[in-house]
Write a structure and sequence with these properties.
The protein is α+β, with helices and mostly antiparallel strands. It is built from 7 helices and 17 strands. α1 (about 1-15) packs parallel to α5 (about 245-265) and α3 (about 80-95) packs across α4. The relative contact order is 0.19.
Length: about 375
């Protein structure tokens, strides 16, 4: 707890030393820049690995190859090629200018296994690459997006039983955070990294591996106005619905680092992703801590929109009725005006993506175990300047 207080204190001091965040400048909001809709359309989507891979941490060492084979089978059954089409449906319907994607995954294999828990992953035969699949799906629709930045977070390898050969091979997962920017939007200064606080995972009693989470950011200019867009995914603070104090602290450490990063940008900040903190405050304080840091929640701006639940569907994605029961995926916005007043000057249209029966794939899969969130942000010019 002392460490947490020190990190939070450092974040506050850092923020106090900075100049106030610059907001949209009225002088830049000229007639030429106003052509078309004034709304900046943002989407965030946790696309899901395709199986509950955390179950690997629950088995003994001699069972890891069998559990990994089971999970690999589930990943193929939940068919990201098919799900990507449904996710692109949401991106297209939202007419998104910028997109934050979490749990984008790349799977590689190696035969035979040379697994060594003390050596870096080295499997290099491509099996599934969610980035390539999604970009192809966008291209097939004639939707042009730049792959602005990819932050590789977790890179892990385990042995698995290859039932088609009877041998033991290796399976490697590389997890990524991805930012897509529509090709007609100017962007620059893309960057990202992992958080210092990482989740320790005991693997079969052999070794403890550390799972990083991270962030990615990019500066964009829209209608002549500058913004910094951040995509993030924080670790959950529970296992199977039971809160674990150490994991609560881990999420708090990650959030403190995230807020320090957000505070280093001079532009208004749009921060989107899977925060793994329930908006009703029933899990961790992260959601409210973000609000207390001067961010507004896009879902709450404007007329009431309902619960807006974003997680979680069944692991196999085949549950007949939607299982979404809490709101943990958000689009936040902060400029000098929101930071000073707690209010947003402008208008927002927001919706949940991929939560209706008609959003399911032809084989009955939900697009992800999460719903996506879309927000059209119409920011009033000049609100960043407060006296």
């Amino acid at each position: 707890m002392k460490r947490l207080l020190m990190v939070v204190a450092a974040t506050l001091l850092f923020a106090c030393d900075r100049e106030p965040l610059a907001g949209p400048e009225a002088a830049n909001f000229n007639e030429d820049n106003r052509a078309g809709s004034p709304a900046l359309n943002v989407v965030t989507y946790n696309v899901y690995y395709g199986a509950p891979i955390q179950e690997l941490a629950t088995v003994a060492a001699d069972q890891i190859p069998f559990k990994a084979a089971e999970l690999w089978g589930e990943i193929q059954t939940t068919n990201f090629v098919e799900r990507a089409e449904a996710i692109v449906d949401g991106i297209q319907a939202a007419d998104a200018h910028i997109v934050a994607l979490q749990e984008m995954s790349r799977f590689r294999t190696q035969s035979p296994s040379n697994f060594n828990p003390f050596l870096p992953p080295d499997a290099d035969t491509e099996a599934l690459n969610y980035v390539d699949i999604l970009m192809d799906a966008l291209d097939d629709r004639g939707l042009s997006y730049d792959l602005a930045f990819v932050t590789e977070t977790w890179d892990v390898e385990v042995p698995y039983v290859n039932f088609s050969t009877g041998g033991v091979d290796d399976l490697r997962l590389t997890e990524m955070l991805v930012i897509l920017v529509r090709s007609d939007v100017d962007w620059t200064n893309a960057m990202g990294d992992t958080y210092f606080a990482q989740l320790p995972i005991p693997l079969g009693g052999l070794v403890t591996i550390y799972k990083p989470s991270g962030w990615a950011s990019v500066d964009i200019t829209f209608k002549g106005l500058p913004y910094t867009f951040i995509n993030t995914h924080l670790e959950p603070a529970d296992m199977g619905g039971v809160l674990i104090p150490d994991l609560i602290d881990l999420q708090a450490y990650q959030l403190a680092e995230l807020l320090m990063i957000a505070g280093s940008f001079e532009n208004p900040v749009i921060m989107a992703g899977d925060f793994n903190s329930d908006a009703d405050g029933s899990t961790t304080t992260t959601y409210q801590d973000v609000r207390d840091a001067g961010f507004v929640d896009a879902w709450l701006i404007g007329p009431p929109r309902g619960a807006g639940f974003t997680a979680n569907q069944a692991p196999d994605l085949l549950n007949a009725t939607s299982g979404l029961f809490h709101r943990i995926d958000f689009i936040f916005y902060r400029d000098a005006f929101t930071q000073a007043t707690g209010h947003f000057q402008g208008s927002v249209k927001a919706e949940v993506l991929g939560e209706e029966q008609g959003d399911r794939t032809p084989s009955g899969l939900w697009p992800s175990d999460h719903a996506g969130v879309a927000a059209a942000l119409s920011v009033a010019p000049g609100v960043g300047e407060t006296d």
